[in-house]
């Protein structure tokens, strides 16, 4: 399995996303728990969640899913609201997340998106949480290249361990500046929603990609996921069933020829200039 590192810890180069998990009935929750466990059993130890996801429902579901597993072998990531970005509020938000997850520390804690609290204050609070042993590393989410570059100039900015942003065939803007910048720093980049999302941002699949998937004997979703993980970005995939998790795992073994990548590029061109950071 392809691996990478965050804060010196080796992790798989594919993470389990949890947006919208834990919000259905009991049967759906059991299916989602089975999906997470199928991923964990296959070695996908990185789980990404947030206090925002179902207002804690996703974290609670993850907490149930990981009960049988050795916590030290897992890599748990969560995110906090920008309005919880002061030192005191951040601590309260973290303690609530830890309780829902059933753990006493996070491997990575991220500011979910830029807010009104001065970032220097947020970074100082994160550094304190790390010093207290409540988190092993901290980072940012939905920060574009200029914002991340500025953040690194602040006290505690050099310790930013990762950044999480939207990345899929339809949202490639980060390839112009953010991806090369983070590669230069050796800072991991987590990419959420490799299949797009609802809310008017569903990816419209052209016939050329349908034909490509058929020629490769895989699904369109596997094409999208394999493409998103072909470079340095770590895709985060929400999965509601064990069967879908197995399909995601199979996508890890997919490679593309130059001609196949050209088909994808023709349908979804790479950026040729800086574009505003997209988010969902």
UniProtKB/TrEMBL annotation:
InterPro entries: AKR, NAD(P)_OxRdtase_dom_sf, NADP_OxRdtase_dom
Residue ranges annotated for the NADP-dependent oxidoreductase domain, each copy included: 14-267
Superkingdom as given in the UniProt entry: Bacteria
Any Pfam family hit: Aldo_ket_red
Annotated SUPFAM superfamilies: NAD(P)-linked oxidoreductase
Name the UniProt record assigns to this protein: Aldo/keto reductase
């Amino acid at each position: 399995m392809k691996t990478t590192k965050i804060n010196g810890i080796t992790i798989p180069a594919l993470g389990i996303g949890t947006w919208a998990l834990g919000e259905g009935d009991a049967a759906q929750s059991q299916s989602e728990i089975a999906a997470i466990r199928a991923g964990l059993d296959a070695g996908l130890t990185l789980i990404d969640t947030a206090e925002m996801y179902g207002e804690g429902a996703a974290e609670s579901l993850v907490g149930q899913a990981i009960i049988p597993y050795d916590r030290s072998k897992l890599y748990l990531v969560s995110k906090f609201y920008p309005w919880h970005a002061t030192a005191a509020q951040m601590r309260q938000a973290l303690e609530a997340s830890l309780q829902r997850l059933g753990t006493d520390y996070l491997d990575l804690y991220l500011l979910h998106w830029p807010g009104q609290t001065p970032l220097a204050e947020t970074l100082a609070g994160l550094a304190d949480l790390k010093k207290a042993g409540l988190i092993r590393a901290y980072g940012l989410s939905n920060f574009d290249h200029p914002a991340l570059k500025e953040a690194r100039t602040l006290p505690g900015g050099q310790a930013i361990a990762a950044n999480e942003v939207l990345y899929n065939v339809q949202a490639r803007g980060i390839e112009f500046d953010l991806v090369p910048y983070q590669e230069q720093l050796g800072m991991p980049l987590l990419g959420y929603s490799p299949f797009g999302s609802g809310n008017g941002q569903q990816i419209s699949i052209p016939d050329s990609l349908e034909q490509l998937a058929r020629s490769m004997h895989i699904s369109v979703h596997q094409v999208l996921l394999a493409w998103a993980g072909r470079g340095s970005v770590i895709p985060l995939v929400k999965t509601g069933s064990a069967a879908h998790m197995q399909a995601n795992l199979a996508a890890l073994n997919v490679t593309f020829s130059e001609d196949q990548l050209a088909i994808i590029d023709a349908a979804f061109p790479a950026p040729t200039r800086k574009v505003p950071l997209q988010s969902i």
